[in-house]
Write a structure and sequence with these properties.
Layout: E1 2-10, H1 28-37, E2 47-48, E3 57-67, H2 73-83, E4 88-96, E5 106-116, E6 130-131, H3 138-145, E7 150-153, E8 169-180, E9 184-191, H4 198-210, H5 216-225, E10 239-246
């Protein structure tokens, strides 16, 4: 019996989030566990670095599980991909320590969020991006994003942890918007951890600043003094869990 660490990608459009729920709900976790059972997995639940919401995607989700596997890790990778649905794919498998936990051992998590700005909505882009029109200014987006790095109480920027007394303080290491081709822009943010809905909330607020709906001063005051901001979330389909880094990996400055 060994513990395996797996990096995987998925299109979250047709899943009711990552976490296993009721018997009739299709989730990413349920599909992975079904694939593992085809390989004689006897566990009750896989471990994951995070639980993405309904409609959210991933290119670097990390999971772990214990499995009695007598072949190579390359063979395990092929076997998993052969049993997974088309929306989920394993990119890397490695054997890890018996006490490895992808959530509790994670040091940094990186998410990215994509918007596009053209006069008319494009159904081919809507699966993976938020249509924002009128167009917003990249300079203003980045002035808003520049307020985010540091340690703050994000209680008004996300959903508090379900555990009573859980901290709402998080440390953001980098947050920046980038221009893409075809009238698109992408936000990338790295932190030690995120509250539920926190990234989508921050995307919404930075877009509202760039659209002139709220001021930079208001966003800054909200971060410093935990003042409520206008309600709203960016839609889920633009969000991707890009990368998770662990204790034995490079420092945050080298996050790709």
């Amino acid at each position: 019996m060994a513990r395996y660490q797996v990096i995987l990608a998925y299109d979250g459009t047709d899943f009711l989030g990552f976490q296993r729920q009721g018997a009739d709900t299709r989730t990413v976790q349920r599909e992975i566990e079904a694939a593992l059972r085809c390989l004689n997995w006897q566990g009750e639940s896989i471990l994951a670095s995070g639980r993405t919401d309904t409609g959210v995607h991933a290119s670097g989700q990390v999971i772990a599980f214990d499995l009695n596997w007598k072949h190579s890790v390359e063979a395990l990778e092929r076997a998993l991909n052969a049993n997974l649905p088309d929306e989920i794919a394993v990119s890397k498998v490695k054997e890890t320590s018996a006490d490895f936990h992808p959530r509790f051992d994670a040091r940094f998590r990186t998410y990215e969020y994509t918007i596009y700005s053209v006069p008319y909505r494009n159904p081919l882009r809507d699966r993976y991006a938020w249509h924002v029109w009128p167009s917003v200014n990249l300079v203003l987006l980045n002035k808003a994003a520049a307020l985010l790095p540091g340690t703050h109480d994000f209680v008004v920027m996300g959903t508090p942890p379900p555990r009573k007394g859980g901290s709402t303080q998080r440390t953001i290491y980098q947050a920046e918007w980038h221009n893409l081709q075809a009238s698109g822009m992408r936000f990338e943010i790295t932190a030690n951890a995120f509250l539920y809905h926190m990234v989508r909330r921050l995307v919404f607020l930075t877009v509202m600043v760039a659209a002139g709906k709220i001021s930079l001063e208001s966003l800054s005051e909200g971060l410093q003094a935990v003042r409520p901001q206008i309600p709203g979330l960016a839609p889920p389909q633009g969000l991707v869990l890009k990368k998770v880094r662990f204790k034995d990996e490079d420092a945050v400055k080298s996050v790709e």
